[in-house]
Design brief:
The protein is about 35% helix and about 25% strand. By secondary structure, the protein is α/β, with parallel strands linked by helices. One of its GO terms (cellular component) is plasma membrane.
Length: about 270
């Protein structure tokens, strides 16, 4: 049985022109391969500038790869096939304060992708909007509320609703939880896990929050300078890191090395 998502030898280079007859090529992502199964969460971690967000943007279709393939259910996805890709893979961006058009209310924000990418009529779109708001813990009445009047927690829920509105199988979360306070972070993490179970979602979490990753991710992919330096089951990678960079990321977050007992008695402040 084929994987839900297969990333095959994906690379991305950027070229800067330095003047006549001179250019500088930056290889931001180098030959990355992995698979994602249904109802699985993959975490992509690494230092700032490791290439994590560039990889995520290629998968969701924002930027084209230089080489390699992205396959959804064994069928290649091509850059520019936005309508097809958006119905299967959606993204929640890091900064919700800059993720929305401030002139729109919540309903209009959620209606945009439905109008552009589906054939639903107005009544059907409204039903989908109200249903999706309920899914993320908001009320249908929030559809009439201006985006700029919402709290950070509510904006995060609207961002998640916008990702869910087209009923995708995969959601990419670009460090959207890292800057939240502990109680909001716990609420949204639990919401994500509940939605994963109810809707059979798969997640790609891009970020540095190893507490969330330890509790939620099935697999971890570690990147450094565009390369994949470790990839495997979460507990195995966190308890038996093979690369010094992975070891430093673990010790920097948890303050110590981890062993299997960390799953038996998790620390209260990890999340």
């Amino acid at each position: 049985m084929s994987a839900l998502l297969q990333i095959d030898n994906l690379s991305k280079s950027f070229t800067d022109n330095l003047g006549f007859f001179a250019e500088h090529k930056l290889q931001a992502v180098k030959h990355i391969s992995f698979t994602l199964e249904k109802k699985q969460m993959l975490a992509i971690i690494g230092k700032n500038g490791a290439g994590k967000s560039t990889l995520a943007k290629m998968i969701v279709g924002i930027i084209p790869p230089t080489s390699g393939r992205i396959l959804f259910k064994s069928t290649p996805l091509e850059f520019g096939d936005y309508k097809r890709r958006a119905s299967h893979i959606r993204m929640v961006f890091q900064d919700v304060n800059n993720a929305f058009n401030p002139r729109l209310n919540v309903g209009q924000t959620l209606d945009d992708p439905l109008r552009l990418l589906t054939t639903l009529n107005e009544r059907e779109r409204n039903e989908r909007i109200f249903e999706t708001l309920r899914l993320v813990g908001l009320y249908p009445e929030h559809a009439n509320v201006g985006i700029n009047t919402l709290s950070i927690s509510q904006k995060q829920r609207v961002a998640l609703a916008r990702a869910l509105i087209l009923e995708p199988e995969i959601i990419i979360i670009d460090d959207a939880l890292g800057s939240l306070d502990a109680s909001v972070k716990t609420q949204l993490t639990n919401l994500m896990l509940d939605l994963q179970e109810r809707l059979s979602l798969s997640y790609i979490y891009v970020g540095q929050h190893l507490g969330i990753i330890k509790h939620c991710a099935d697999k971890i992919l570690v990147m450094d300078e565009g390369e994949m330096i470790e990839y495997g089951e979460t507990r195995h990678v966190l308890t038996r890191p093979q690369n010094d960079i992975t070891k430093r990321l673990i010790e920097s977050y948890f303050g110590k090395e981890l062993d299997n007992s960390a799953w038996e008695k998790p620390e209260q402040n990890e999340m």
